[in-house]
Write a structure and sequence with these properties.
359 residues; alpha/beta; Rossmann fold; 2 domains; 6-stranded mixed sheet; 6-stranded parallel sheet; 12 strands; binds nicotinamide-adenine-dinucleotide
């Protein structure tokens, strides 16, 4: 691979800012990327990862920050996209001082960037960050665990997928195959059962989660991980890891609708998005359908009112349908359509700001 040209990349994808920081006393070493702040402050979690190279860390941060721009825009939130990656081994680096040092760098961006927890960071870590900055979300005792809200958003997205495919969204008339019954899959199954789902298959690799399901909902049928794709279901719900929709698995899928919580579930957005489209399967784009957790955290910034969070999360139904309609009309994949939808909103808001209004 040739040299990575950061300014070329920033120009190509319209990034605003890349910040490197290093704190000698704690070993804090990281990068914050602000992709776009047209709609509001850039929000995105802080990830700690032992990257093989500094370039890997930069590329990951750039990619994740841009993803946050589209996710927030598509969710109708007044937030931009950003991300922080910290380089090193989370197990040895973490301390109060380490996170307070991070908080000071976040504060130095004067609210252009708001952080939160992500891979290898917790609400406890963020409580240290909050000692040094006002610009941190996802704190303990505030909006709480986002997973039930993420799952609720997915539930609404599932209904939108059914509506598009079958012209009705009655959960009780349909069958489901859920891949992964962890934080989000478990709650999704709960909502589906509550709505009277005809039959649910699920798969898991964690014995504890298999047992929990057997105890709490014995009517939910366990299938082996490799068998979940071909389960006889109307909706396939990927709620495990990313990349599970690929050249090997897509041909196996029986369900005419795919709708789940997993991020980056298409191994390759273009290749596998098209593969799904060519099979006539309705795919509800990951970053549109799984925005419930982000909606939840956003409300923490504006005085948390549960009813408002629920109402905003319910709107995922309309957004998924709108995106699916764009995909159909334009003859593109729904993942591409979701980006068109997000970019349109950013452009529209940018345009109305051309006149001068004193505040
Ligand atoms: P989780 O780790 O709690 O649950 C995932 C579950 O999938 C685990 O129980 C794991 O054992 C299982 N699993 C992993 N590989 C599997 C396989 N091959 N077959 C069967 N089961 C498998 O994670 P989560 O919080 O539920 O997140 C799931 C996905 O949703 C992730 O991609 C995450 O990025 C995304 N997501 C989560 C949230 C949230 O609020 N938690 C928000 C947005 C997106």
């Amino acid at each position: 691979m040739g040299e990575f040209k950061v300014f070329d990349y920033m120009q190509k994808h319209q990034y605003e800012q890349v910040v490197y920081f290093y704190d000698q006393s704690t070993g804090l070493k990281g990068i914050t990327v602000i992709h776009n702040t047209t709609l509001g402050p850039a929000l995105g979690g802080t990830r700690i990862w032992n990257y093989a190279t500094e370039e890997d860390a930069l590329i990951d941060c750039l990619r994740l920050a841009r993803g946050m721009t589209y996710k927030s825009a598509a969710a109708g939130l007044n937030l931009g996209g950003g991300k922080t990656v910290l380089i090193g081994d989370a197990a040895t680096l973490k301390s109060e001082a380490y996170f307070r040092a991070l908080g000071r760098y976040v504060q130095s961006l004067s609210g252009r960037y708001i952080t939160a927890e992500d891979v290898n960071t917790t609400t406890k870590d963020m409580s240290y960050v909050a000692m040094e900055t006002d610009y941190v979300a996802g704190l303990e005792g505030k909006s709480g665990n986002p997973s039930p809200i993420t799952a609720l958003g997915v539930f609404h997205g599932v209904k939108a997928g059914l509506q598009k495919k079958f012209g009705e969204s009655d959960i009780s008339a349909h069958t489901f195959a859920v891949q992964g019954a962890g934080q989000t899959g478990y709650y999704l199954i709960g909502y589906l059962l509550e709505a009277g789902a005809k039959k649910i298959y699920f798969t898991e690799i964690n014995q504890k989660h298999i047992q929990r399901m057997a105890q709490e909902h014995p009517e939910v049928v366990f299938v082996k991980p490799e068998d979940i794709y071909a389960a006889d279901a109307d909706v396939f719900c990927p709620c495990a890891l990313g990349g599970t929709l690929n050249g090997d698995t897509i041909p196996l899928i029986k369900a005419p609708v795919i709708a789940g919580s997993a991020n980056n579930v298409l191994l390759d957005e273009e290749i596998h998005g098209n593969m799904i489209r060519e099979r006539g399967i309705i795919y509800c784009p990951d970053f549109v359908i799984n925005a419930g957790g982000l909606i939840n955290v956003y409300h923490e910034l504006h005085g948390y009112v549960k009813e408002r969070v629920m109402a905003d999360t319910k709107k995922i139904y309309d957004r998924v349908l709108e995106v699916l309609d764009i995909a159909e009309k334009e003859g593109i994949t729904s993942q591409q359509a979701a980006k068109v939808f997000a970019k349109k909103r950013i452009e529209a808001v940018r345009n109305i700001r051309s006149n001068y209004i004193p505040r």
